[in-house]
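Q: what does this look like with pyridoxal-5'-phosphate bound?
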Amino acid sequence: MNDTIKPALRGTPFPGGDTRAIGTPMQPSVVYASQDPDALDAVYEGRAAGYSYAREGHPNADVLARLIDGMEGGTGGLIMGSGMAAVTATLLGLLNSGDHIVAGNQLYGRSLRLLDQDLPRFGITATLADPTDAGAFAAAIRPETKLILVEVVSNPTLRVADMEGIAALARARGLILVVDNTFTTPRGYPALANGADVVIHSVTKLLAGHSDVTLGYVLARDPAHRQAIYDVTTTMGLTPSPQDCWLAERGLYSFELRHDRAQENAATLADMLAASGKVAQVLYPARADHPDHARATSILTNGFGNMVSFTIKGGRAEAVALTRAMPGVAFAPTLGDVATTLSHPPSSSHRGLSPEGRRALGISEGFFRVSVGIEPIAHLLGEFQRGLDAV
Ligand SMILES: *Cc1c(COP(=O)(O)O)cnc(C)c1O
């Protein structure tokens, strides 16, 4: 027998030494070994640091959560497998059958579906109201209302919610204020500092920034809320993958630079679009002609964001012509990528609405939403000019 030949067994130590890796290690292990049952008890009961099973938590999620906590100015944030997992865990964690939600009427499409189709099956109902009018939110409150869900900047018309009025209302009526801060980012709107009880992000979007991970984040101010949201996340398996957390962490280190550049590009693009004879309307909160410009100026602390919407003169035929004439900008229904993406809500996010329903929101066949990226501005202006020339 040759005793230099050995079977491959678990347990080879990871080589360390006197140097330190600059990059965060990725830890894909699903399971963690403990010394003995007493040591495992200590981990489960929080008396000792450590992990047990990746669905319950893992180091890459914690590294990412601590970084986003810092940006939001809080502690104890949780990472979920997607932005919708974050919304779902929050609502199922904090609400019981019989409870009622008041929510913005232009929330992310899947959040609207959750409120409209899924939560009612569990006895949780919602009333939608115009978030630019805190009075409309007040009027929608019922005795069984427990929670308000709002996005600061709406999709796709980029209306800016009356966050001061809504936060004051939530405080006065003892309601849990949940802010989905995805569009605004912690940099654009410090949600926790402005009275949110729970802050949600789709990390998939600007925070990770490269369209290669799907992740969510929830920060709850109240430890009991945090525990309830954590328990739903773990039990329902809304857990993030370590690989995604690792990639999102890498994206986060360039977030501020990307955010600055994307906002600068967005402002320039909005002005260029507004000056075109082919464009009927531009929506960008930095512009004086935006319906919520004054409010945007007072509540958005670090620029006006990377989202620009515009309506061309014409209908579906002109919309198709514009899209085809600018292949250098991806026609794709997402946001927050390093590259600019163009979306057409009538054929994507808002295709489920009737034409009248869309018209009520100001969305015609000529309506586009742009998630502005960090390309050289000359490239973007050139692409959009080609698109407009084809209209
Ligand atoms: C994209 C998005 C979500 C959902 O996030 P996913 O990561 O795609 O699940 C929720 N809220 C807002 C505002 C979003 O833009």
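The mean pLDDT is 96. The pocket of pyridoxal-5'-phosphate is lined by residues 82-84, 87, 108, 111, 151, 180, 182-183, 202, 204-205, 214, 216 (CB under 6 Å).
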